[in-house]
Amino acid sequence: MGLHQNRNGLFNMCDNGLVQLSHCPSFDCRPIAYVDKHASGANNGTTPEDAYTDIQTAIDNDPKKEILIQGYGESDCYPAGIVLADCVYLHGVDSVWIDCEDSNYAVRGNEVVNGTVVHEWTTQIDGINVKNSPSAILYILGNIYNCEVKNITDSSYHNGGFYSCYGVIENCSVHTGGSIDDRYRYYGFFECAAAFKNCHVYDIMGACVGFERYLSADNCSCKRIGILYSHLLDRRVASLGFSNGGLVGRDLIIIDCVVEDCEYGFNFGSFGCTTSATNCTTTRGYIGVSVCGDTTLLDVSSTAMLRYGFKVTQDYGDMLFINCSASSQSCGYYLNNTVAIPEFINCNDGGCLEPDSWDCGNGRCASV
Question: Are 107 and 72 in contact (CB under 8 A)?
Answer without folding.
Answer: no
